[in-house]
Amino acid sequence: MNDQTNKKPEISRKIRPLRKKATKEEKPDQQKPAAVKDKSTKTEAPKKKSPKKPEPEKKVTAQQQGLTRLNKYIAAAGICSRREADELIKKGKVKVNGKIVTEMGVKVVESDKVRVEGHEIKPEEYVYLLLNKPKNTITTTSDERDRDTVMDLVKNATDARVFPVGRLDRNTTGLLILTNDGELANRLMHPSYKVRKVYQVETNDVMTDEQLTQLRNGVELEDGPARAYKIERHPVQKKKFRMSIIEGRNHQVKRMVSAVGSEVTSLKRIVYAGLTDKGLNQGRWRHLTRKEIFELRQLVKLLDKKSLKL
Fold first, then answer.
1. Complete DSSP assignment for 32-74
2. 71: nearest Cα among 63, 59, 83
3. From the candidates 86, 146, 169, 304, which is the catalytic residue?
4. Rounded CA gap, 66 and 79, in Å?
């Protein structure tokens, strides 16, 4: 019995050191999670540099700033192409806010005043339509009596707000320009630019040679004298003839014919400022070509390739 009791303390001594070792071995294991936490904290630290992300937003494009290259600005005004605008700039024909610009790549904003050969220009998206107006259509932008207007015929042509250049009577058919280019429209209507208009006229009787001669020489109307600059009889239909005028007074052709003792029964404008109704049926419209626009501007002495020697 005494031997057994004496051995027990020895066993406990042997076990105790083992327990201590196990405790020591467990301590590093307990510290590892802390070490992992430290490492994970270090890897997540760079993510805090988020303020650098908005950098791309700071890059504002020229378009966002409202900046436009000068050559594009000039071309948008309908004067010429960008390449031709570059030539104008090189030749010193362009001023921005009163200063001559010859350097390529200059940008301007909408508020800048740009002049080419002394003419101030604006980069507007101009629209030019040619309409073959039918009968029973009013030449106006709106009608209180809800009658058909020329605007109804071109409503699907453009989103721009265009308006008719001049007017044709309700039952007069033929060519009519509609545009948002106010300067061109005003000059086309002004008598000093002598814009030619050709009408096909039909009367209630056959006009005599004497009556046609009177129209060529001029007749007296309520608002002053008026004359036809050219008259041609229709080769087949004797009651029809073509008459060319350069003025645009109200009911001018009808009043002139009435002044020589006859009456107009049908009136159609077949030529306006060099534009014809060829291939354009009544009630139909088309966009003017770039060439036609340049020719119109040249006709009324606006900026064009010829005047700029391009």
1. HHHHHHHHHHHHHGGGG-GGGTTHHHH---TTTTT-EEHHHHH
2. 83
3. 169
4. 21
- Show the domains of the chain with their CATH numbers: 68-121 (3.10.290.10), 128-191+277-299 (3.30.70.580), 196-272 (3.30.2350.10)
* Contacts (Cβ under 8 Å, ≥6 apart) of 161: 180
Q: Determine the distance from the C-alpha atom of residue 258 to the mean position of all C-alpha atoms in its chain, rounded to a whole number.
A: 43
- How high is the pLDDT of residue 168? 94
Q: What is the mean pLDDT of residues 26-36?
A: 49
Question: CA nearest 174: which of 278, 287, 299, 262?
Answer: 278
Provide the 10 A C-beta neighbour count for residue 290: 12
Average pLDDT over residues 74-90: 84
Fill in the amino acid letter for 204: N
169 carries an active-site annotation: yes
